[in-house]
Design goal:
about 260 residues; alpha/beta; two-stranded antiparallel sheet; 11 helices
Length: about 260
């Protein structure tokens, strides 16, 4: 209406103030110092990471706090992510501006849900996680064919969806954070001897994840049970902002040295 002279746009009443980005705090996780260190290394270098440990050791809590360790999004990264999210079913919300995406699809997700597609191709979880984090919990429970489609985008940073009617290409440069139990019952290696899984069953469980996919996950971390003394300790762990400052400094060094992160 404004362009055709029928109406006139009103001046904005106010300017948008910067939105404070809040993430889950790392200091809420007691213990697991070596896992936190591994996540810091992964955040600094842009690496994918796999956490292996029994249930209840904090794998999901740690993954949910990983986006808070990443450097602040640049304007271009924020625009890319907002454009992709605007194509998703939930759309883009302005309060999420410059917030690193964190996607955690259930292990029952199909390959189309994960990488995108359909008769009218739409971006999948890997593209909605562009410039952010894709968390896959219970990794061996995902269908193997679903996991295999991750191999190409992990290498190239984009996905091409080809259909009879049209072809679409979406960016998909995400950091993969995955978690799994060490065996079907989850208690392999427990000093209390709670695991009763035969060796061949444990091997078959771990074999659900192919070697080529594991090769693309740079860090494999054992996540053990936390002693009660660590949980009861009064000394607070480091906050996310302290770790994020070291990560930002490390990335700055990598860019000055080789113009890209170590993972690339």
């Amino acid at each position: 209406a404004h362009l055709t002279g029928i109406g006139q746009l009103q001046a904005p009443a106010r300017t948008l103030s910067p939105v404070a980005v809040d993430y889950a705090e790392l200091d809420e996780v007691k213990g697991q110092a070596h896992v936190k260190r591994a996540l810091e290394v992964a955040a600094a270098g842009g690496h994918s990471v796999l956490m292996i440990g029994p249930p209840g050791t904090g794998k999901s809590m740690l993954a949910a706090r990983f986006p808070g360790l990443l450097p602040e999004m640049s304007e271009n990264e924020a625009l890319e992510s907002a454009a992709i999210q605007s194509l998703g079913s939930a759309g883009f919300r302005v309060e999420h501006w410059k917030r690193r995406p964190y996607r955690a699809p259930h292990h029952s997700a199909s390959s189309v849900a994960l990488v995108g597609g359909g008769s009218d191709p739409r971006p999948g979880e890997i593209s909605l996680a562009h410039n952010g984090v894709l968390f896959l919990d219970e990794l061996p429970e995902f269908d193997r064919t679903v996991l295999e489609v991750l191999r190409e985008p992990l290498e190239s940073g984009h996905i091409v969806l080809s259909r009879a009617a049209r072809q679409a290409e979406y960016p998909a440069r995400f950091q993969l954070v995955a978690a799994m139990n060490p065996c079907p019952c989850g208690h392999f290696g427990d000093p209390r001897g709670r695991c009763r899984c035969p060796p061949e069953r444990t091997a078959a469980y771990r074999g659900r994840i192919s070697g080529p996919l594991l090769d693309r996950i740079d860090l494999h971390v054992e996540v053990g049970r936390v002693a009660l003394e660590e949980i009861a300790a009064t000394e607070l762990p480091e906050r996310s902002a302290v770790v994020a400052a070291r990560v930002a400094e490390a990335r700055s060094l990598q860019r000055s040295r080789q113009a890209r992160t170590n993972a690339r």
